Amino acid sequence: MSEWINAVQLEEVPEGSCKGVKVKDTPILVSNVEGQFYAINDRCGHMNAPLSLGKFAGHVATCPMHHAAFDVRTGKKLTEPTLGGGLEGMELPQEFVKYMEGMGQLMANIETHDHPTYETRVQDGYVQVKLG
Length: 132
Description:
Blueprint: E1 4-9, E2 18-23, E3 26-33, E4 36-41, E5 55-57, E6 60-62, E7 69-71, E8 77-79, H1 94-108, E9 117-123, E10 126-130
Antiparallel strand pairs: 1-10, 2-3, 3-4, 4-9, 5-6, 6-7, 7-8, 9-10
């Protein structure tokens, strides 16, 4: 049977925000959606970037690396990653452009997965999670 573990103090996750923490070596994204706390794995299901470094709006965490989006309430993937972009109009060495195109093709074949979710509760001023 798994135990409840203090993940983060309540005041560290005000309504409409999220925070990345480590709980027993597991990266967790704790979010506050309209006063309800949710916890999912903090690593993107595409290429392992920390979701806590990306954007958070409403109930959606967006990866800072390739912009895959996840519903923090369910852990479900909402959008696939967006690869490439942002280089339009820049004068870049042809070798670099070719390298980036190859990386984009490689990354496009990496499947994006839903996230594990963790049960949460509020106890003694902490958001607690259950890992198991």
